[in-house]
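Fill in residues.
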């Protein structure tokens, strides 16, 4: 039996399809609109020019390096998947598992492909030079945003600590999107902090990776949304990313993704949701995972589908930032 966690990228499509529920291969959905991938990870096995820093890799640095060396996710591989799937462009989201705060590879390939890759970097939220680096990257590298990740082992999350305020203020001044991935069980506390920061920094669009990790198997009456999730509905600068990683979790727990997605659209609005493939991270056939996402959106209106799969991401990912 094939373990999905051992597969990566569209190059293993046949094996990946065998590892996924058969409904994904029953028919191919080809929408009339192009897709905007808000969650793509790139990395290369050119370690001479771009050495790995895989200390934060979820499954350990040795496994991550071995995967990246064997299955690099360069523009060649990712664009082949994008082209097969009807994806016109997307965010290159810095991959902490391979490069941590070293954004050079992402910025180099984004400069080579400005029509397809919109860069979202990762920087230390507590770094003294982070505000100036964000300003420089917005000006010179045309970044659209910055991603902050961390766990609730630290209280508060490191990107919500007082030491992160200068980084948030810089993102607010530049009009960048701030992508947040709070890892751990304190979902309610993280969402409460999101609300506080959304009010404090109204010119920064906050984009929640994986919709802030709702757990519908634990809170079925609200599709996993905590009261703190629901309190974000009226904040105009909070957005939500519907990802393959989230779909994979729904599969694993037996939650119907179409009903889940329709509940998210009813709660937040499709104009506040964007889709991301998680290419470079989620294993299996990426083409099949795109099909799952499209299938889960089949009950939405055409306008809602276009908002989810293109309009929202295109609107909030502004190269160079929106400014003041």
């Amino acid at each position: 039996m094939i373990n999905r966690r051992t597969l990566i990228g569209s190059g293993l499509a046949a094996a990946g399809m065998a590892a996924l529920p058969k409904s994904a291969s029953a028919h191919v959905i080809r929408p009339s609109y192009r897709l905007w991938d808000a969650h793509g990870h790139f990395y290369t096995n050119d370690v001479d020019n771009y050495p790995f820093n895989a200390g934060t890799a979820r499954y350990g640095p040795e496994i991550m390096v071995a995967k990246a060396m064997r299955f690099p996710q360069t523009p060649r591989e990712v664009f082949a998947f994008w082209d097969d799937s009807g994806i016109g462009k997307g965010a290159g989201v810095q991959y902490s598992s391979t490069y941590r705060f070293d954004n050079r590879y992402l910025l180099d390939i984004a400069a080579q492909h400005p029509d397809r890759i919109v860069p979202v970097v990762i920087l230390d939220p507590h770094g003294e030079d982070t505000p100036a680096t964000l300003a420089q990257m917005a000006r010179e590298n045309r970044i659209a945003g910055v991603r902050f990740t961390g766990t609730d082992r630290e209280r508060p999350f490191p990107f919500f600590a007082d030491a992160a305020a200068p980084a948030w203020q810089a993102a607010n001044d530049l009009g960048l999107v701030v992508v947040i991935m709070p890892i751990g069980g304190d979902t309610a506390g993280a969402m409460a902090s999101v609300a506080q920061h959304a009010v404090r920094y109204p010119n920064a669009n906050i984009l929640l990776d994986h919709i802030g990790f709702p757990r519908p198997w634990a809170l079925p009456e609200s599709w996993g949304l905590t009261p703190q999730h629901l309190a974000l509905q009226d904040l105009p600068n909070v957005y939500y990313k519907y990802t393959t990683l989230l779909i994979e979790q729904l599969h694993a727990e037996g939650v119907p993704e179409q009903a889940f997605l329709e509940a998210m659209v009813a709660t937040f609005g499709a104009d506040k949701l964007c889709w991301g493939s998680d290419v470079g991270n989620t294993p299996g056939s990426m083409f099949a995972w795109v099909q799952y996402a499209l299938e889960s959106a089949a009950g939405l209106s055409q306008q809602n589908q276009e908002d989810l799969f293109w309009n929202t991401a295109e609107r909030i990912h502004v190269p160079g930032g929106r400014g003041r």
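The radius of gyration is 18 Å.
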